[in-house]
Structure formats: structure tokens, C-alpha cells
């Protein structure tokens, strides 16, 4: 970075006082120098989704929600997020945690995350806080959903975690590797898996220790692990055969009480439930001091308090490491300081050993992962409540391969990447949002009335006002189909005015549909003449054919009862 670029960057970070500016000019890393506080430090990383390379990831322009949840943490984005947390537009925090001015700020601040930078920041913060008083925790969704994780079946992510030095972990997408593979990787993982809600189907016994107890600085800390409760709803059942999950509220209370009976001073929940569900649990479970939550990819630059329980969310995509310093007291937490530390590659020096490890891990796969498939003239992004330009790219690719398909469905997963205007599109970037272990595109027939019912079911899940009934990601994306969405309408009345290829949906007509990364094809009858093919292969073929794509955001849906924002 040139001196002029550093000056611009520091000004954007708000380093406007002469003293702070001078110090930052000499040591930009001082932004990560945190004064000591308390007795115990927790370093929290979650929802990395296999992204070992620095990359761009835009937060959702929209997080639509029922009125009961609207404007609350878990449903804050864009300008509303900046106002709620008091962040300045154009700052590093605004770039990392919101979609406001994303393309322009991406040019200023560069890519975020990456295993060598995350690891360097974790190691630095651990040394700064004190190794003996620090625990490093992973909130799950770490081993899968990238090109390198897909090609190594998660092994590279376990090797990375071992080198960084994690202490505990919980699961979600890890189970899409299959139970057998997960258990192989657990044996190689140095961190301890804790999870009270992964139980044997037959006897109901926990598969892993439900909690761990740590004695630190004269205090006792109990950490309970909570795996995503709806693994079997979100993914094909065969991946987790023989296991059950669930919220298991009564059992969670039992384990909190058990830890209290053992005399622990504070109880922490390491969770992959997501912000809305964990906020609800915080108001119902007695004796929880702190929840560290993942899954919904939210950031909480300031911790949230519900009664006597603190909640801190960890974001996603490797964009931040969360440091939580606890001032302990006998029987609880007297005070807490949480800092969401952006993994800004222009301000952090990568860890040399991790950098070498990642370079070696990628070496056998570079010809495949780094092949350039095409170029984009517009911003390609993934995350949003109902639509993204990357999902439209997938729809265009499916239509090109199968012109007879009426509607192409794409999944409402939250993970992915962003590709800036003018950037080349590589296979690695395509796999960052299509890195499923079940990527096949299925062609099937479905009657119009059933298609309407499917859309209503997805909307009922996505926009349910009760977090206990939200069991998946964002709204499924559609290509070739348009509709109106009333988020706050009663169940069964949210999706209206459905049209396919410009013609009103005929409830009695049988349509030809395509989908990938889910189980939608089970709703209809498969067209046997088509051999299922991975979505990323179809996208690669399409990009090689067209060479350049231009996809301005033009959603085929219209939101009737809430403001809908397009990026830029």
C-alpha cells in the first residue's frame, strides 16, 4: 500500500485526530490493539464456509421480516444497520457490516478475510489477551461450501483449524459431508466438538459431550454447544442418518442447571441457532450468561442484552473475528466488552506459516479452481432475502442448457461471494456459492397448484414471525417466474399473482421445472431422460459460451408491504 493510499484509508477509518492519525501512520495495526480487560477472553469465528482466500462478500441489501421482528437485530441491514449501531457511512465498519456503497468501498478497502489473515488476527489477539486466559471458539459452517473444501472433502479446513488452534466447535453444513466423513474429520480435529443436541436416533443419547468446563483465572466457565437444530429439514436426511437434532429447549435448561449445580461461575452457549432464535431462547432459558451465535450471518458490533443474558453474533465469510473480554465474578459475569474486528487484508499481515500452508493446499487444484470462465460487467452478489444476481446467473445457465424448462429454482443459502464489475469469473468464485455436496440439477414436472403451494411453504418458513418456526435460509430464487410477495399476510396468502414466462399461473397445467441444492424435485415427477448434472458445470459452460455477462439487479418478484432496496 502506498503512503497516499494509507492516508486515504485511515481517514476513512475515522482517524482524524492528529495524535491518532500520527500513531496510525506509524502503526496501522494499532486499530487491533485492545486494552486488557477482565479475566477471560473468548475469540469467536463462525460461518466461514470454507473461504480460505481473501474475497469480497456484500451483506444483504434486504432482510425482510414479519412486523414483529422488523427493525430488530437479525433483520437489520443497509442504512438501518448503520443507524442502529452508530456506524459512519464510508467507514471500514460500514463496508464490512453493511451493503451501503459496497462496490465503491470494495475498491477502497480491498478483499476481506482469508485463512492466513484470520489466523494471524486470532493469534495476535490471543497473545495480546494472554494465552492462558483465552479460548478460541468456532460456531460451525466452517468445513464446507468452497472449491477447496469440496475437493478435499473438508480436510483442508480441519488442517487449517488445527494450525490456528481452536478449542471448541459446533456443526451445521458440516453434515452435508455425510456422517461417516464428519466422524473421520472429528478424529483429525484437535478442537473438541461439544453439542448437547446431536443425539442418537435410537436411544436419544448425546453423540458428543454436551458441554466443557474451563478453569481460568480463578473462575469456572461452562460452555454448552448447540448444533443447528434443523439439519434434517435443511438437507437430505441420508447425510445425518441415525442422528436427531432439534432446539430441545428443556434439555438445554437441564444442562444449564447441571453446570450451575457443579458450581460454574458463568455459562456460555456456543450456538449455531442464529440471532432470532437465540434471542428468543435468551428470554426463556434461565442461567445463561452469554450466547455466541452463528448461522444467520449477522454482525452485532455492540452486544445485545436480553434480561441477564448477553448475545454476540459472529457474522460470516471470514470477514471478522469477535473478541469478547469477560470481567468475571463468583456466580456470573460482572461486565463484558465485545469487539467485532474486521479482517481487513490491507491492515493485517498474513501469518507466514498459514499463508504457506494455504498455498500448498491449493497447488494441486489451481488448474481447475483458477480457470477463468468469463468476465462480469456488473456486480454479482449472493445474499438477499429474495433475489441475487448470482442466482440469476444460475437461472440463465440452466435455461441455456435446458431451453424447455419453464422455471429454474435456486437455493436461498446465505453463503457465497461477490464479484466486482470488471473482475474475471473463476471456477473458484462460482464454487463459493455453488459448493454443495449435492449440486445436481434435476428436471421434473409439477402442476401449477402444487408450484403455488411450494412457494407458499418457503415463504411461511422464511417470514414466520416466530423464530422457532424458521427452519432454513432465505427465500428460494426463481428464474422464469414472477410473483408479488406480501410478507405480513397470513400463511398461504403471501405469494400472489404468480406468472410464468409472462402468463398467469395455470393451477391445472403441468410445468417443467429445474432445481439444485435441495429436495424440491421430490415434490414432482422426475423427467428420466435428463441425467442430473452439477450446477457449477452448467454455469461454467454458459460463461465460456457468452464470455461476458451483464446482470443488473432486476428481481422478478415485487414486495407489496415493505420497502425493497436494490444495491447501488
Automatic annotation (TrEMBL):
A single cellular component GO annotation: outer membrane-bounded periplasmic space
Membrane-spanning parts: none
GO biological process: nucleotide catabolic process
Every 5'-Nucleotidase C-terminal domain range: 386-515
Record Pfam families: 5_nucleotid_C
Listed GO MF terms: hydrolase activity; nucleotide binding
Family: Belongs to the 5'-nucleotidase family.
Protein name per Swiss-Prot or TrEMBL: Thiosulfohydrolase SoxB
Organism: Meiothermus hypogaeus NBRC 106114
Taxonomic lineage of the native organism: Bacteria, Thermotogati, Deinococcota, Deinococci, Thermales
Amino acid at each position: 500500500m502506498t503512503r497516499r493510499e494509507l492516508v486515504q484509508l485511515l481517514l476513512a477509518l475515522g482517524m482524524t485526530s492528529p495524535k491518532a492519525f500520527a500513531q496510525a501512520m506509524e502503526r496501522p495495526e494499532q486499530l487491533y490493539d485492545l486494552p486488557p480487560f477482565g479475566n477471560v477472553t473468548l475469540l469467536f469465528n463462525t460461518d466461514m464456509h470454507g473461504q480460505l482466500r481473501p474475497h469480497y462478500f456484500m451483506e444483504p441489501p434486504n432482510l425482510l421480516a414479519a412486523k414483529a421482528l422488523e427493525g430488530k437485530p437479525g433483520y437489520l441491514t443497509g442504512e438501518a444497520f448503520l443507524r442502529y449501531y452508530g456506524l459512519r457511512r464510508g467507514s471500514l465498519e460500514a463496508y464490512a457490516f453493511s451493503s451501503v456503497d459496497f462496490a465503491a468501498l470494495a475498491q477502497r478497502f480491498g478483499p476481506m478475510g482469508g485463512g492466513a489473515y484470520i489466523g494471524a488476527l486470532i493469534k495476535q489477539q490471543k497473545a495480546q489477551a494472554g494465552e492462558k486466559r483465552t479460548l478460541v471458539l468456532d460456531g460451525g459452517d466452517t468445513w464446507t461450501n468452497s472449491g477447496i473444501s469440496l475437493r478435499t472433502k473438508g480436510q483442508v479446513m480441519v488442517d487449517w483449524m488445527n494450525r490456528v488452534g481452536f478449542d471448541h466447535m459446533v456443526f451445521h453444513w458440516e453434515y452435508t459431508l455425510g456422517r461417516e466423513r464428519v466422524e473421520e474429520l472429528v478424529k483429525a480435529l484437535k478442537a473438541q466438538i461439544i453439542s448437547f443436541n446431536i443425539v442418537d436416533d435410537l436411544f436419544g443419547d448425546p453423540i458428543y459431550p454436551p458441554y466443557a468446563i474451563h478453569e481460568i483465572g480463578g473462575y469456572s466457565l461452562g460452555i454448552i454447544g448447540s448444533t443447528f437444530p434443523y439439519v434434517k429439514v435443511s438437507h437430505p436426511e441420508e447425510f445425518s442418518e441415525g442422528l436427531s437434532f432439534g432446539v430441545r429447549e428443556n434439555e438445554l435448561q437441564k444442562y444449564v442447571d447441571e453446570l450451575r449445580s457443579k458450581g460454574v461461575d458463568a455459562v456460555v452457549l456456543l450456538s449455531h441457532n442464529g440471532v432470532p432464535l437465540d434471542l428468543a431462547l435468551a428470554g426463556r432459558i434461565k442461567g445463561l450468561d452469554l450466547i455466541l451465535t452463528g448461522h444467520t450471518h449477522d454482525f452485532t458490533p455492540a452486544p445485545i442484552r436480553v434480561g441477564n443474558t448477553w448475545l454476540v453474533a459472529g457474522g460470516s465469510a471470514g470477514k471478522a473475528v469477535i473478541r469478547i473480554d469477560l470481567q468475571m465474578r463468583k456466580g456470573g459475569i460482572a461486565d463484558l466488552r465485545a469487539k467485532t474486528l474486521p479482517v481487513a487484508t490491507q491492515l493485517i499481515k498474513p501469518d507466514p506459516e498459514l499463508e504457506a500452508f494455504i498455498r500448498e493446499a491449493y497447488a494441486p487444484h489451481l488448474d481447475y479452481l483458477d480457470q477463468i470462465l468469463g468476465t462480469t460487467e456488473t456486480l454479482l452478489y449472493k445474499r438477499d432475502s429474495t433475489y441475487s444476481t448470482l442466482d440469476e446467473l444460475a437461472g440463465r445457465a440452466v435455461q441455456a442448457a435446458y431451453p424447455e424448462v419453464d422455471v429454474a429454482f435456486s437455493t436461498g443459502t446465505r453463503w457465497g461471494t461477490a464479484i466486482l464489475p470488471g473482475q474475471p469469473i473463476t471456477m473458484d468464485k462460482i464454487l463459493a456459492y455453488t459448493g454443495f455436496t449435492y449440486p445436481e440439477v434435476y428436471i421434473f414436472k409439477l402442476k401449477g397448484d402444487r408450484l403455488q403451494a411450494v412457494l407458499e411453504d418457503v415463504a411461511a418458513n422464511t417470514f414466520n414471525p416466530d423464530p422457532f418456526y424458521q427452519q432454513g435460509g432465505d427465500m428460494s430464487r426463481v428464474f422464469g417466474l414472477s410473483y408479488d410477495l406480501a410478507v405480513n399476510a397470513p400463511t398461504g396468502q403471501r405469494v400472489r399473482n404468480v406468472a410464468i414466462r409472462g402468463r398467469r399461473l395455470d393451477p391445472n397445467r403441468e410445468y417443467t421445472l429445474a432445481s439444485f441444492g435441495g429436495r424440491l424435485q421430490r415434490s414432482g415427477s422426475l423427467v428420466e431422460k435428463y441425467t442430473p448434472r452439477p450446477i457449477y458445470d452448467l454455469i461454467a459452460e454458459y460463461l465460456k459460451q457468452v464470455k461476458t455477462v451483464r446482470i443488473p439487479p432486476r428481481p422478478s418478484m415485487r414486495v407489496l408491504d415493505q420497502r425493497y432496496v436494490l444495491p447501488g
